[in-house]
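User: Let's play a game. I give you a shape written as tokens, and you guess the letters that built it. Ready? Here's round one.
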């Protein structure tokens, strides 16, 4: 079968299409014929050797996908050949930048009608992360004001919609006027172009927009220096949820920015959560049902053929995409 493999860590050029043997499902696993695979910043970090859970090359990247079950391993129940599914890596799949992949049955969810494979491939990482952070960790309600950073990203557009559906007031931050305006199309009440409000000016504007109180919830998808600003932007009794460090830089924290406010700092990392017992299937089913019902929109910016994964990573690292980049595999990505 065809796959995209990393034989050494490096830039996008190390993503090389190759022929590899098709994987065989073991006990508790299913074999999925991939129709579409999501492209994530974690994939780029893995490719560069910067991901904290990266193994050693050769590696087939890809942590989320959607496709059709073709075979099930010993002991698998509740999943059958022919089912359309979305799949989450959880650190145990054979890699989804490929025509087929094995994945634990516990990380596979059947798709309802109305959700195509391209949409479904975008749900298991970005959408599940936003959902868990806002619904389970921050417990967002209609009484909250929520700041979403990098609101034009995959996680960001999901978070804006999830918070808006909960009835919260949403302030969407993005790195250009165009991205901020676009994020506003997903239900944000206020948008903020952070390129026009750098550093301290961002904090001052968030405080102004919240009447000086600060936000009830800040979803920090950036890390680095942005995390320090998040602590200053949260209000009394608020929650800062940190789920990434795409800035790839240390965060300087002044404890005086949060402990006098009795604020909480909540961390989230999906793979580690699964290792410690989290079953993602109920949340993924609920997300898929909402997408099928038209409650949520899954913005797909670019669909790139599997063998052009290098171009997908180059676009991702330029940070000019709005919404999700997805790899199409074979001819079934839209069905």
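Assistant: Ready! My guess for every position:
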């Amino acid at each position: 079968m065809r796959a995209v493999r990393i034989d050494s860590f490096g830039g996008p050029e190390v993503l090389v299409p190759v022929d590899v043997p098709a994987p065989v499902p073991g006990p508790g696993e299913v074999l999925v014929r991939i129709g579409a695979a999501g492209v994530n910043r974690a994939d780029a970090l893995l490719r560069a050797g910067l991901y904290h859970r990266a193994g050693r090359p050769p590696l087939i990247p890809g942590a989320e996908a959607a496709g059709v079950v073709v075979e099930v391993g010993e002991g698998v129940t509740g999943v059958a050949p022919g089912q359309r599914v979305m799949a989450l890596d959880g650190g145990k799949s054979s890699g989804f930048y490929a025509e087929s992949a094995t994945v634990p049955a516990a990380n596979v969810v059947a798709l309802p009608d109305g959700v195509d494979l391209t949409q479904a491939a975008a749900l298991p990482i970005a959408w599940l992360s936003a959902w868990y952070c806002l619904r389970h960790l921050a417990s967002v309600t209609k009484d909250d004001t929520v700041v979403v950073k990098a609101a034009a990203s995959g996680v960001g557009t999901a978070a804006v919609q999830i918070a808006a559906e909960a009835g919260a007031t949403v302030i969407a931050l993005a790195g250009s006027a165009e991205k901020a305006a676009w994020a506003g199309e997903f239900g944000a009440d206020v948008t903020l172009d952070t390129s026009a409000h750098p550093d301290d000016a961002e904090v001052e504007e968030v405080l102004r927009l919240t009447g000086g109180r600060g936000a009830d919830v800040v979803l920090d998808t950036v890390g680095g220096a942005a995390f320090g600003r998040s602590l200053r932007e949260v209000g009394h009794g608020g929650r800062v949820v940190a789920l990434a460090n795409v800035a790839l830089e240390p965060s300087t924290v002044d404890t005086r920015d949060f402990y006098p406010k009795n604020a909480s700092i909540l961390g989230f990392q999906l793979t580690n959560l699964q290792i410690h017992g989290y079953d993602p299937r109920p949340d993924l089913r609920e997300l898929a049902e909402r997408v099928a019902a038209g409650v949520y929109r899954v913005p797909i910016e670019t669909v790139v053929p599997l063998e052009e994964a290098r171009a997908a990573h180059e676009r991702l690292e330029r940070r000019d995409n709005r919404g999700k980049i997805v790899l199409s595999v074979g001819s079934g990505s839209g069905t």
